[in-house]
């Protein structure tokens, strides 16, 4: 949490703009929700986003050129019709009137048809090609983000909430998807139409052309106002929408706690507040659009009316022709059309670039517990664990484990007990290498955990957490999770050993029962047994077990205790114990207090000594009476 605070302060504080700014200040997701970023930071973020986009597009370099060619041809075919209309009026109709020959007119009509057909073909080609490239890019982006989120360490996920993860995967990839679908097409077409039409106007009649282009002064003033107003609003719209998603997903993820504590009304209030903020900001952005779009149309229509007036006068004076005037009027329609869409593109671009900034930030995060580049192989670990001079802090300056020396010989069963917050889970997580110690080192068979490859480490050290997480799928899948590729027989054997076989076979479809279906739901004790079977199948040299705190009924309890004895036999075990029987069965007990070892010895020895453990034991025994 405190880590978030540290980052959080970098997000909003003057650190951002201060002279002490270094690259590391905005690495990864550190700047993500910054209200304002300095010019230096902004160019760093933009460069990072561009690098990601380019990296994603690189495999489609050639296709992109084809796409550009298609867009150019399409736009040329769009510029042709007004010009052909002019020739039709000035040359085709004239020759028909003068000589009675309709050949020129017929040629022009054929050319017009050809232009229209080409336009349709290029549009089809464009949509298919851009759709293909866009979807492939999105697939790759989603894949990368997912792989990276999975690879990032527990410390990262502690501070980066699931709501934010979901927001990255939904909101942000959607924004990029929109850019792929409309943004590119819109921008390229708008630029080509504007430049192309402008050139055609000047070429046909530079005087009338200049008058038309003068309207651009008003257009650019309106666009400047719009971009200024909307960049702030769009940013707020995005943040507000992310807040709605985050609150929603976090409420649903914790729905049991929400219902148990009757938290619904308060959550509803917060949700309504957030949704209302989202609505209000959207209304504000609509207001900006409501000025911008009609504004552009007004300028366009006034220009057309003026052109009719001035152009008509030019024709009467013989300085221009009816054909040129008609073409001008047609071109002007085309000229102002993409301008009204600029607001939409702007929104799309802003959203997509913000999304890219965030996603490239996530991809830039380095795992806190990186895999060694040149790992030491451990194929058959013995299971000796040593913590030498280990200090660990979640937040800088606040050590949870001040200086811990702990040596666990291979095969020993060690129970950790102590007051809440004493650091038991932290020790367990250090042994499983969810975190690396701040100082000192943790070794397995004398080899630093940070020097062992992930695969070997995960094979040698397994941690069974309290939640006993059950994934969607069949029971067999859930057990096989312990050792991917395990056969049906091995799965059944593991279940039998921990005493889970009976209840599994009694389920509607036995091992094939889907745990997400009705009838497949498991009780707390059953979940624990499945987790044990999973751990037994994994057969690690070191097993770390966070014993569930929830108490079971006596028969289930006996079943679980028996299973526990089976899976703990012949391996190193570190158990965060909550049950007296578990502690009493252990070879050694460690009583912890504020990250320090207060007592250390065999259970009966500690009982005899008459210290904290003896008191704890007495209290436990009394509670059972
Ligand atoms: N992710 C985290 N970020 C910051 N501080 C943490 C984090 N996890 C634990 N702590 C702090 O570290 C200390 C030790 O926590 P730990 O979970 O190891 O205790 P514990 O002995 O396992 O407690 P319990 O029996 O309640 O599970 C506590 O003061 C806790 O507030």
From TrEMBL:
Name of one Pfam family that matches: ABC_membrane
InterPro entries given in the database record: AAA+_ATPase, ABC1_TM_dom, ABC1_TM_sf, ABC_transporter-like_ATP-bd, ABC_transporter-like_CS, P-loop_NTPase, Type_1_exporter
Keyword Membrane applies: yes
CDD domains with a match to the protein in the record: ABC_6TM_Rv0194_D2_like
Places the protein is found: Cell membrane
Gene Ontology MF term list: ABC-type transporter activity; ATP binding; ATP hydrolysis activity; ATPase-coupled lipid transmembrane transporter activity
Domain ABC transporter: 385-619
Domain of life: Bacteria
GO annotation, cellular component aspect: plasma membrane
Sorted UniProt keywords: ATP-binding, Cell membrane, Membrane, Nucleotide-binding, Transmembrane, Transmembrane helix, Transport
Residue span, ABC transmembrane type-1 domain: 65-351
Transmembrane residue ranges: 63-84, 104-126, 184-202, 208-226, 286-308
Region (Disordered): 1-23
Membrane topology annotation: Multi-pass membrane protein
Family: Belongs to the ABC transporter superfamily. Lipid exporter (TC 3.A.1.106) family.
Protein name: Putative ABC transporter ATP-binding protein
Organism per entry: Acidipropionibacterium virtanenii
Source taxonomy: Bacteria, Bacillati, Actinomycetota, Actinomycetes, Propionibacteriales
């Amino acid at each position: 949490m405190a880590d978030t605070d540290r980052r959080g302060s970098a997000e909003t504080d003057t650190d951002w703009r201060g002279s002490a700014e270094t690259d590391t200040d905005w690495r990864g997701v550190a700047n993500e929700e910054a209200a304002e970023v300095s010019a230096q930071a902004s160019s760093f973020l933009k460069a990072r986003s561009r690098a990601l986009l380019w990296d994603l597009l690189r495999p489609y370099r050639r296709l992109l050129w084809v796409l550009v060619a298609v867009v150019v041809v399409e736009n040329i075919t769009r510029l042709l019709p007004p010009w052909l209309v002019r020739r039709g009026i000035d040359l085709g109709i004239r020759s028909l009137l003068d000589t009675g020959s309709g050949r020129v007119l017929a040629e022009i009509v054929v050319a017009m048809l050809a232009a229209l057909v080409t336009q349709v073909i290029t549009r089809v080609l464009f949509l298919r090609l851009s759709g293909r490239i866009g979807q492939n890019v999105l697939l790759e982006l989603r894949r990368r983000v997912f792989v990276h989120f999975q690879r990032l360490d527990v410390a990262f996920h502690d501070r980066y909430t699931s709501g934010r993860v979901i927001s990255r995967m939904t909101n942000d990839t959607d924004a990029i998807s929109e850019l792929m679908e409309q943004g590119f097409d819109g921008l390229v077409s708008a630029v080509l139409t504007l430049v192309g039409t402008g050139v055609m106007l000047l070429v046909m009649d530079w005087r009338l052309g200049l008058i038309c282009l003068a309207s651009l002064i008003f257009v650019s003033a309106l666009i400047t106002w719009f971009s200024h107003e909307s960049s702030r609003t769009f940013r707020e719209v995005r943040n507000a929408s992310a807040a709605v998603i985050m609150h929603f997903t976090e409420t649903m993820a914790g729905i049991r706690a929400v219902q148990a504590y009757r938290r619904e009304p308060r959550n509803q209030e917060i949700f309504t507040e957030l949704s209302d903020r989202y609505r209000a900001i959207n209304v504000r952005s609509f207001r900006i659009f409501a000025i911008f779009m009609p504004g552009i149309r007004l300028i366009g229509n006034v220009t057309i009316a003026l052109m009719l007036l001035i152009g008509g006068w030019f024709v009467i004076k013989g300085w221009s022709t009816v054909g040129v005037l008609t073409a001008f009027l047609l071109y002007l329609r085309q000229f102002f059309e993409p301008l009204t869409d600029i607001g939409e593109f702007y929104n799309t671009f802003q959203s997509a670039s913000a999304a890219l900034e965030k996603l490239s930030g996530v991809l830039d995060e380095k795992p806190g517990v990186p895999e060694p580049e040149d790992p030491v192989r451990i194929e058959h670990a013995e299971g000796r664990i040593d913590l030498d001079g280990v200090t660990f802090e979640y937040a800088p300056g606040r050590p949870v484990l001040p200086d811990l020396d702990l040596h666990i010989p291979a095969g020993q069963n060690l129970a950790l007990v102590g007051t809440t917050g004493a650091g038991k889970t932290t020790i367990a997580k250090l042994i499983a290498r969810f975190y690396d110690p701040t100082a000192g080192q943790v070794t397995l068979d004398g080899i630093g955990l940070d020097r062992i490859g992930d695969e070997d480490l995960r094979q040698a050290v397994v941690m069974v957490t309290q939640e006993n997480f059950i994934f969607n799928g069949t029971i067999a899948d859930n057990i096989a999770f312990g050792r991917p590729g395990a056969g049906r027989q091995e799965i059944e054997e593991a279940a039998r050993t921990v005493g889970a076989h009976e209840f599994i076979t009694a389920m509607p479809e036995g091992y094939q029962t889907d745990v997400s279906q009705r009838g497949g739901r498991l009780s707390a004790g059953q979940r624990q047994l499945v987790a044990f079977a999973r751990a037994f199948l994994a057969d690690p040299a070191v097993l770390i077990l966070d014993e569930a705190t929830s108490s079971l009924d006596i028969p289930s309890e006996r079943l679980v205790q028996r299973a526990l004895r089976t899976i703990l036999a012949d391996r190193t075990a570190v158990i965060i114990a909550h049950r007296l029987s578990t502690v009493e069965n252990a070879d050694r007990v460690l009583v912890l207090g504020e990250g320090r070892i207060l007592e250390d010895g065999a259970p009966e020895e500690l009982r005899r000594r008459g210290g904290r453990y003896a008191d704890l034991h007495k209290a436990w025994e009394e509670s059972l009476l």
